[in-house]
Amino acid sequence: MAESMVKLENITKQFGELHAVDNISLTIKQGEFLTLLGPSGCGKTTTLRMIAGFENPTSGNIWINQALVNEIAPYHREVNTVFQHYSLFPHMTVFNNVAFGLKMKKVKKAEMMERVYNVLDLVQLKEYENRKPNQLSGGQQQRIAIARAIINNPQVLLLDEPLGALDLKLRKQMQLELKHLQQSLGITFIYVTHDQEEALTMSDRIVVMNKGKIEQVDVPRVIYEMPKTLFVSSFIGDTNILKGMVHKKSNDELTLQLGAEMITVKKEPTIEVDDHVLLSIRPENIYFIKETESHDIKIPVKVIECIYTGSSTKVVTQLSDGQKIVIQSTNDAIVTKNTAAFLTWKKELTVVYKANEKEETF
Ligand SMILES: Nc1ncnc2c1ncn2[C@@H]1O[C@H](COP(=O)(O)OP(=O)(O)OP(=O)(O)O)[C@@H](O)[C@H]1O
Ligand SMILES: [Mg+2]
User: Fold this and answer.
1) Which domains does the chain have, with CATH numbers?
2) Where does this protein have coiled-coil stretches (predicted)?
3) How far is the CA of 43 from the centre of ligand 1 (A)?
4) Do β-strands 276-281 and 253-258 pair in parallel, antiparallel, or remain unpaired?
5) Mean of the per-residue pLDDT values for the chain?
6) Residue nearest to atom 12 of ligand 1 (CA)
7) What is the pLDDT of residue 85?
8) What confidence category does residue 360 fall into, taking pLDDT thresholds of 50, 70 and 90?
């Protein structure tokens, strides 16, 4: 296991009464691409600013590379930050923008030139060295900002929505470029986004935040397939949330009433008989089956709507108790609007939560 590069221990940041960051603990490994993901205002930027040293925690400790940095000024920390707005010097050429940090440190000219050309090569902008920022596209400007941030060989690069200002196509291209850059540099990236697809594409691990707290930390596949809380399941990707009630509990299974049907799912330790539960099932994990087929889960529904979306068809169906289930189907040949149909899904892809009156509905 790689060693810890950044460690947050019981970090809280209050602005007046507001707990912008509320007692979070997290260890980020050397060379890891870790993403802080969550809705606007959940505390992502505040967390990043505390790691950078632009903001002091109200309580808690921060370690970078095994050293306690609570009292260390930003420019003495082994981190660098890339912001959404590139903050390049408009009057300077690309070369001088990138060289700026080295000139401040009075690095010798030959070494400086070599290092600048090296990073310009890495971000594929060597031939643009004499241009000014306003003669570059948004994506090129952002690559210069990244070149400028990595030239001092920081141990950790903090990136706050660095692709937020780019259009979708460029954004997707830059996501892959950044991931490759991070892998070839081998440095730790702490990346902030509120775009779940971006997080799933780029990250080694994702930290899902909500209202200053951490909801789940795990690899993208587990975050997507086994969301620990209802918030995570609704925030990441599309899902169906269905109401049910626990009818029976055995050693490793729960039998639930869903509409007029009974289905069995994996046991959850905290859930008991007669509990009200919420089930989360992804639209792409549900399939239409023929009435004659037999499956563990087999639910009769009425087809309400079929919406063609190109690569698949979104089919809206309804259970006998009125609850709607949306299916993303690539084989919708067997269903038509206003007819009866049967659905199935794998029981291990059903995530069950205890219904909590305090829990928000999405
Ligand atoms: N300097 C400040 N003074 C007072 N409140 C602040 C300050 N900075 C942030 N906040 C508040 O703290 C909370 C968290 O803000 P933060 O900027 O960390 O959110 P975020 O997750 O980065 O959101 P976004 O996705 O919109 O950038 C918000 O409610 C914000 O209004
Ligand atoms: Mg922010």
Assistant:
1) 4-234 (3.40.50.300), 238-354 (2.40.50.100)
2) none
3) 6
4) unpaired
5) 91
6) 20
7) 75
8) very low
